[in-house]
Each structure stands twice: as structure tokens, then as C-alpha cells.
């Protein structure tokens, strides 16, 4: 059979490449015919523009062209191996593999979650983003008010998770009026932080003078790390959710040492892929997030801005780069030519 996959092949260039996959399905694997996949505006755009810090770091060896793109897909199981007992042909699922029209997964090693209806597919794509966002909420050691900097998909969902699953009064801040409006559509308390001095006063007003004990940095902009540390309370914490692009300059003495503060890395690999007894893990976060999405406890439908063919992906990345306020959640429809 012919399989189409998306690769970043060079700076600002991705291609849909076709390969022959005539190998028999292994006894422990399942093959999924994907209907949709979802572009990550953060990671994928950084790889497409070659701004990901990994390109310059010899220790991050995977970050070299060609790179398979994507990490969120939904589809229908087309075939199962002879050892597979818990999955059936025709079952709809969400999984975390790359952009392709077919994927082969091992349920013992890969995260796969069932969907009861095809109508759930588009919303279920955001499970991967919610799983990542859960990392920051779980990593927090403080109580009191929280602030999320950045109203993109990751930041927005993180604020929703902190509100809905961790009972934290959470404020979302962004400089974009469109993203503020999007956050409000998702039920969030959102504020524009384009004016630095006024924003500090606004934070005091919104928290009744309490300030914020937790600041989640969800933009990936290197200068925002220091800004987040400035905004948090003494004895507070700043959590790095988005992957910081480039190097960050921090006054460690003033912003960490003198404030008795914690600076916490919340890369998703802070927690294992699987764990026992609902301990924190990628799988537990994903399962919990999907339940929240399907029950509309987590609101994700407002993110969907575009549905495209896989052959329009270079244009999609260009749109994310130049007009990000108009293009938030770009879904690839693998049945479109």
C-alpha cells in the first residue's frame, strides 16, 4: 500500500512524500486510516522556520532535516494484529503520531484513545495539546491566583485546565485582542497585557491585591521568562510550559534568589508516558483531557479556524507566521486532494 507522510525537508519547506508499505502488520500492531491531523502552531512552526533551538544544539540530534511533522491525528482502525484483543477494526481513535494518511501503532507503547462517534474527531485532535498543557498544571506547587502568559492553544487550554481540574483562579493574558476574545469564548478571565505598567495594576485589581503565586509562560518568547518572574509574587513560581526559543537573560539574584522563587520546567517529559494507578503520565493526562473535551468541560471548538488539504501545508505555516491571529487551529483533512 502507498502511505503519504509530511516531512520538513528544509527551511520553510514541507513536502508530502509517498512510500510503499508492503510489510505485513506485526501481531502486536494496529493500522489506522487517518481522517484528520492537527498542526501545532508552536513546535511545527519553529521547525518549519528553522528557529527551534534544537537545530543549533548537538545534543538534540532529532532536530535535523528531514523531520516528520505533526503529533496529533484521528482516524479509524483498518487492521489489527493477531495478538490485539482490546481494539477492533472500524473503531474510531485519537493518537499522537505524525501527519500521514495511515499510521501503524503498538498499543502497548503508543497512546491511543477510543472515540464513540466520528463527529468527535475534530475536537479530539486537541487532546494532544491538552495533555501537554496538563504538565504545567500538575507541576505547580502553589495555591492562590495563577496567571498564564500567552493565549494560543496551549496557553488557553492550560488556563482552562487549571480552572476546571485544579480549582485555581486563573487569569489569561495576551497582547492580541483576537486571542483575548477567543479566551472569553472559552469561559476564561482574560486581559490584555500590552501595557506593562497598567497590566501590573490590573493584576492587583483582578486578584483583590493578592497578586499571582503562579505564572505559566506559554508563549515560548525568551524575554517573557524574565517578565514572568517579575510578575509572580514573592515565594511564587514561574512554570515554563512552551519551549523557549533562543536563550533567556535573567537577573537570577533579583528575580529568583531574592524572591525565594521556583523556576520550573514543564516539558511534557517531566512525566512518563504511562504509569500505574492513575499517577501523572502522558496517558492519564490525555485520557482526562479527552473526557473533558467530549463533555465540553474543556472548550476547544472555538480554536478551529481552517481545514486544509495536506498539499496546502506550506501556505498554512506561512499564514501561522504572518497572520497568527486569524489562524489558530489548522486541521488537515486527508480526504482532500
Helix-strand layout with pairing:
Layout: E1 2-10, E2 13-20, E3 30-38, H1 43-48, E4 67-68, E5 73-80, E6 92-95, E7 102-105, E8 112-115, H2 121-124, H3 127-139, E9 146-149, H4 153-166, E10 170-174, H5 177-185, E11 189-192, H6 196-206, E12 212-217, H7 223-231, E13 232-240, H8 252-257, E14 262-265, H9 282-294, E15 304-308, H10 313-322, E16 329-333
Helix pairs in contact: 3-4, 3-9
Short description:
The protein is 28% helix and 27% strand.
How does this structure look, described?
With 337 residues, the chain is α/β, with parallel strands linked by helices. It has two domains: 2-126 and 300-333, Medium-chain alcohol dehydrogenases, catalytic domain (Quinone Oxidoreductase, Chain A, domain 1, Alpha-Beta Complex), CATH 3.90.180.10; 128-270, NAD(P)-binding Rossmann-like Domain (Rossmann fold, 3-Layer(aba) Sandwich). The protein is built from ten helices and 16 strands. The chain has helices spanning 43-48, 121-124, 127-139, 153-166, 177-185, 196-206, 223-231, 252-257, 282-294, 313-322, and strands spanning 2-10, 13-20, 30-38, 67-68, 73-80, 92-95, 102-105, 112-115, 146-149, 170-174, 189-192, 212-217, 232-240, 262-265, 304-308, 329-333. The strands form three sheets. Strands 3, 5, 6, 7, 8, 15 and 16 form a seven-stranded mixed β-sheet that branches. Strands 11-10-9-12-13-14 form a six-stranded parallel β-sheet, sandwiched between helices. A three-stranded antiparallel β-sheet has the order 2-1-4, with no helix packed on it. Strand 13, helix 8 (252-257) and strand 14 (262-265) form a beta-alpha-beta unit.
